[in-house]
Write a structure and sequence with these properties.
Strand order of the largest sheet: 11-12-13-14-15-16-17-18
Largest sheet: 8 strands, antiparallel, barrel
Number of strands: 18
Number of domains: 3
Radius of gyration: 27 Å
Shape: globular
Mean pLDDT: 94
Number of helices: 19
CATH class of the largest domain: Alpha Beta
CATH superfamily of the largest domain: DD-peptidase/beta-lactamase superfamily
Helix content: 40-55%
């Protein structure tokens, strides 16, 4: 159904929002210009768009290049909530969208070394294309790609004609509806397309750059799109990962290429298997990711139903010194948004144990077993394609890459200390709630009515309650995070206030407990209050270090 409430049915020409699948058109446009000799993948962004603000501390030696924007290896943060929430009455220009928050385009590590997905990379590449062609990017794509590929109804804009044909966006519950969202950086994810449009697009990739009898790009260019070249892992021989706005994903042992996409209320799965000559594009006007994954699984198994499972290559025997070099605990170091590093570095820690034929990876979830396919590359035990690497470059420490995530080895003892600290803080914070069930009733109706120094009990409790309220407020934004966090709303302002109240109450409770250390009160009560206040203050200091004290999500 295109619109459940109106009982409007989907047709082959109904338009869906394909989200980040739009990025493939950015890469194709760059590669077409490269074939014409008008730019190169290795060109620096500064040389092609000198007026575009970005910040790279390594620019003199390791500049941001066009290829980094397409492979997501510029090290930039992903698009900020302020940029996501930008939804003007009239469509803004690409330059206006890129001007919303230039600080997001800051390289957090040397460009061309690690992958981290950022919607700003393709937008910056599209802006460079505008500079080269003298055309609005969307007009260039329409002329260069939409027309030759018979994508007659595809559009980046919510025109009146598009609004008549487009689906209503729904939440995962199938009832909540969402309005049309004008994406601030359109090249990254704004295309509206029909099943008829996308069928031709799939054929273009399956025909290795040809469509309708015309070779629009050489087959070698399509093959280049499918594999990364700039990461540490790629330089160590790992061909899986994110290429030029195409990525490899392994399903049932086979390597599929494509790009998924999503907006609030709509999801897309675009994938193809070149050696078999089949592909598909599934678009749903719902935010239910589980449903999309189930549909994709059914389609892939149908398309490969006549094939025998791929043969697993024999394991490569690793040198004995590899285990010593790479064994240990690792933390993830490539968060999609730097703001989330504070949590990711704790919950994402992994224990790596290397043997003669591979390594195991153990974190909070299920243990994963990888088998060596070469001196640095590894595959899942039941898959034929390598998707992990032990990085040979040691300039930034001992690194591994699994999928597209990069991890750095921690010094001995750090991981157990961090885990023990988190558990201790959580236990002590929860204990303030448990003990309050005893002392609060006694304070009003029992023997504590005349007790002094209740501040040492009350403040840690209030700090814990502020922390819980902060978590509840954040959880309340999940149904519509862009709208609720990208503007000053009751939710975002509440989160801002609570992110100040939590550390303020924590440090106040620690100060009060320290002042009361010599006061007449039960020693066990004092020690508990002091320990809880110290734990809460430690948590507050950690959050403040990562920029979360007084967090204004709409800025």
């Amino acid at each position: 159904m295109a619109d459940i409430a109106a009982q409007k049915k989907v047709t082959a020409d109904t338009l869906f929002r394909i989200g980040s699948t739009s990025k493939t058109l950015v890469a194709l446009s760059v590669l077409k210009l490269e074939q014409e000799g008008r730019l190169r993948l290795d060109d620096t962004l500064k040389s092609r768009a000198p007026d575009l603000e970005f910040f790279n501390p390594w620019e003199e030696t390791d500049p941001v290049r066009i290829v980094h924007l397409l492979e997501h290896t510029a090290g930039w943060d992903d698009i900020a909530l302020k940029e996501l929430a930008f939804n003007p009455a009239e469509e803004a220009s690409l330059r206006e969208g890129l001007s919303l928050r230039p600080a997001t385009r800051t390289s957090r590590w040397r460009p061309g070394t690690r992958f981290s997905y950022s919607n700003l990379g393709p937008a910056a590449a599209a802006y460079a294309i505008e500079k080269i062609t003298g055309q609005r990017f969307e007009d260039h794509v329409k002329e260069t790609w939409f027309r030759p590929l018979d994508m007659k109804t595809a559009s980046y804009f919510g025109t009146p004609e598009v609004r008549q044909q487009i689906t209503q966006l729904h939440g995962s519950d199938g009832r909540t509806t969402y309005p049309y969202w004008k994406i601030s950086v359109r090249p990254a994810g704004a295309i509206n397309a029909s099943a008829r449009d996308m069928a031709g697009y799939i054929q273009f990739f399956l025909n290795r750059g040809a469509y309708g009898g015309a070779q629009l790009l050489p087959s070698s260019v399509i093959e280049r799109m499918e594999h990364p070249t700039t990461t540490y892992a790629a330089r160590d021989g790992l061909s899986a990962g994110y290429g030029l706005h195409l990525m490899m994903s392994v399903h049932d042992g086979r390597a599929w290429f494509g790009h998924n996409g999503g907006v609030v209320g709509g999801l897309t799965d675009f994938a193809y298997l070149p050696e078999l000559g089949v592909g598909y594009c599934v678009m749903i006007n719902s935010g239910n990711g589980r449903v999309l994954a189930d549909i994709g699984r059914v389609v892939r198994r149908y398309l490969t139903r006549s094939l025998t499972p791929p043969t697993l290559p024999p394991p490569f025997i690793l040198p004995s010194q590899v285990a010593k070099a790479y064994d240990g605990w690792y933390e993830p170091i490539t968060p999609r948004q730097e703001l989330g590093r504070f949590a990711l570095r704790l919950v994402g820690m992994k224990k790596v144990t290397v043997g003669e034929s591979g390594f195991t990876l153990q974190g909070l979830g299920k243990k994963k077993v990888f088998v060596a396919t070469g001196p640095h590359t590894f595959r899942h035990a039941n898959e034929a394609v390598a998707t992990a690497a032990l990085i040979s470059d040691r300039s930034e420490g001992t690194l591994i890459e699994v999928g597209t995530a990069t991890f750095r080895r921690l010094p001995p003892g750090v991981a157990p200390f961090q885990m023990a600290s988190v558990v201790t803080i959580l236990i002590l914070a929860q204990s303030t709630l448990v003990f309050a069930l005893v002392w609060v009733p006694r304070r009003f109706w029992g023997g504590l009515r005349t007790a002094t120094h209740l501040r040492t009990r009350t403040l840690p409790l209030l700090s814990t309650l502020a922390g819980l309220a902060l978590l509840v407020a954040i959880a309340a934004t999940i149904p519509d995070p862009i709208e609720r966090l990208g503007h000053p709303t009751v939710w975002s302002v509440s989160i801002f206030a609570l992110s100040i109240a939590f550390p303020a109450l924590s440090f106040w409770s620690l100060f009060a407990a320290w002042r009361a250390r010599h006061m007449p009160m039960p020693r066990l009560v004092w020690w508990h209050s002091f320990a809880a206040a110290l734990a809460l203050s430690t948590a507050s200091a950690y959050l403040a270090y990562w920029g979360l004290a007084g967090w204004r999500s709409w800025v």
